[in-house]
Write a structure and sequence with these properties.
With about 200 residues, the first copy, chain A, is mostly helical. Helices cover about 75% and strands about 0% of the residues of chain A. Chain A is elongated. At the A-B interface, α7, α8, α9 and α10 of A face α7, α8, α9 and α10 of B. Chain A binds a DNA duplex (31 and 31 nucleotides) through α2, α3 and α4.
DNA sequence: AGCTAAGCGAGACGGTACGTCAAGTCTTTCA
DNA sequence: TGAAAGACTTGACGTACCGTCTCGCTTAGCT
């Protein structure tokens, strides 16, 4: 399947398949971007480096993406596709705790810092943000939204909460701390933050 | 008073005063940076532009700050010093609501987008983050912490909450949304987010 | 009739006729090249532009010509076919003067600067030079050679001159000045140069 | 002494001396350009190549010259400064013949083809032409003008000739032939052309 | 009448070079 | 002695044009 600009993706459109060549370049570029991101983060994923390492010319890269940040965003989506599956047991509450634990580990690992760099890049460029959402965030949020919904259905959370806001209540504080570094996100802090957020969402007992 | 690197600041150290000239250059540079930030955001606040507009040579800038982001961070602190005072009436709860209202307006205004750009810049460079905290964030958080403490004392909030986490429970979701743009921060969303956060902190009634 | 590469042309060979389509593309490309040359000179006559404007694909262009300069050279020949006819009255001397006057006007006009650009392009590529000669210069020189021959026959010029050299004695200085711009080619200069050249060729009286 | 743009040079102005560093870069770049020109002609003297080989950054090159052709033009001037001195014996006529002989050899040698490439480059860009004249041609023409003047004084040439035109009468045909390649410039042709030109300038006997 | 080979438009691609921007360093000169 | 002035290197950027390639369509001309 060919690549898609966020606009098209967000509009639910697909580009007409363009032939083997185009996709090959797209894939090669993404693979190189993934590799460079893992090794050196956003700083390493320059257009020149991706071009050189992948054998895809710069002009072609610019035909496929509007900026290096966009490539990185999509590459990050590819990279994360293999991680962080959502637990799905009988207990929504247990699943929530499991998932939030995973999140904590993720944020403190190498992928976490790439994630943070990407969020930072979103600040400078709305297009990057669009790519980041389309190729990574949206799907992940959908998964988490399902989990929250299950918490609502099992009467763990109130039924008048806004799912999107609930998600941000968990993630926002963590991301903010990772970006600015004003406070720790060690296990204790993490659990305490989560605890506060859960209290904000729980159904009164 | 001469300038301080964050390391020194955070360690409570002061550089030996360096003479009248130095401070004049420091001030001039900051004034220019403030001006450039207001006009064109982070993108406009380049070293060359600051140097040219302020008449302070690049070399001198680098003697005073480690990077252009650091200048911007300190300049932003200067810029914000005149805004967003904390309300202080008899009612902590009313003060909290007033303040959070102000925050909303601030985030959506021109200063808000500079703030977001700076937070984004923090992602790439720990030193920038240190400057940002030292010259802007720390003081502001202290003010907000006091407000939260008053909410605890007036038994609006529980007394076992962590003030730092409480702050991030309010700010994190907003900042996250501003950065990534995945959801609105209009008045309704804002109040709903705040409402969720407050619920997480409130003393059970 | 199909097109010919200079080598073939110069060897007196013709390509086997290739079918109606081929010629249509050839003509369309030349027409576009003429148009682009007139509007923007050599700089505008890029392969991409010719291809786009004419609807002839780049691959086809490269099947018909070895380079964009070659296309331009042939197009210039087409363009000039409509201009600069040779006067032919009873007086060879008068005809010579008329023609040289025309030349002066031509060199200073828009076609003159295209001509100069093409001569400049010949410097970098022998193939371009071959096209330029085949599709423009050779025929023109033949015409001028006839005129000079008539001057010899009417005993205006010596009969031991080399016609080719005589032509270059007139044109070389003009072209050189147009290329390098070290001296004017206004009417006075032009006539003076021509006068020197004629003196070099005249039969002593 | 710092470098000069042709406009300044032609206006007789000098840039204010800029310090040792600048000149070092200028010299290094020219040396590299000379070297590259000798090895591969104009095609080899790319900005990137000059920058890489000389260790002078591209930005600096563009501060010193407006284009690679300008660098090449100045470099060619440097290269030629060591060649083609003007003979100066008692006999102006003999000196003229000697010099024209030298010219022939020069045109057919490796430097000749660089010369032709440069003349060709002048066709596309007036600035290149200005550099070419300033750093190579003007001085050379001054020398040749002196020689022609001596021919006038010795009553070999008429005294009503225009020196500039006389120069072009010799050089124009040669340059034209070298550029377009429509006719030979072997010894016979060369002498014949020179002979024609001389006839055009000689004092009637 | 159908088949085959050629020419064709479309358009993506790798490559070379360009010209520019901003960052951060270094030297010279001045106060 | 410290700072202004400003030239410098570095690294990356985004673009232009080139010449090549593959694809699938059309057409010509032979079988």
């Amino acid at each position: 399947m060919g690549h898609q600009t966020p606009a098209e993706v967000e509009a639910g459109l697909l580009r007409p398949p363009s032939g083997a060549r185009s996709d090959a370049a797209h894939e090669k570029a993404l693979r190189s971007a993934v590799c460079l991101l893992k090794i050196g983060g956003m700083k390493a994923a320059t257009i020149d480096a991706i071009s050189e390492q992948s054998g895809v010319s710069k002009v072609t890269l610019y035909r496929h993406w509007p900026s290096r940040q966009a490539i990185a965003a999509e590459a990050f989506g590819v990279l994360m596709a293999r991680h962080l599956t959502f637990p799905e047991t009988d207990s929504a509450q247990a699943d929530l705790n499991d998932y939030l634990d995973d999140i904590g580990k993720f944020y403190r690992g190498p992928l976490g810092s790439i994630f943070v760099e990407l969020v930072g890049a979103c600040a400078n460029d709305a297009t990057t943000a669009a790519y980041f959402r389309t190729f990574f965030l949206d799907e992940r949020r959908r998964g988490f939204a399902d989990l929250i919904q299950r918490c609502v259905e099992s009467e763990y959370f109130r039924d008048d909460i806004d799912t999107e806001q609930a998600i941000d209540l968990f993630f926002g504080p963590l991301v903010y701390r990772m970006l600015v570094g004003h406070a720790s996100i060690d296990d204790r802090a993490l659990h305490s933050i989560i605890d506060h957020a859960i209290r904000g969402l729980r159904k009164p007992v």
